[in-house]
Amino acid sequence: MGKTALEGLNGVKKVTRGFRGFREINTVTYDPGVIHPEQMVAALQEAGTYIGTVEP
Known about the structure:
Distance between the termini: 22 Å
Shape: globular
Structural class: alpha+beta
Mean pLDDT: 90
């Protein structure tokens, strides 16, 4: 679900879905000149799939 919510956003280049335990973990490659992490969080919250964010 989270991958689907992110893939349609302008500026998101790639979403790789993985799992840790029983949780879906998405790694997102994006253009920071087009989209900001806050916008991606908002899309995930709207889809009802947001739990938290980890930045490298």
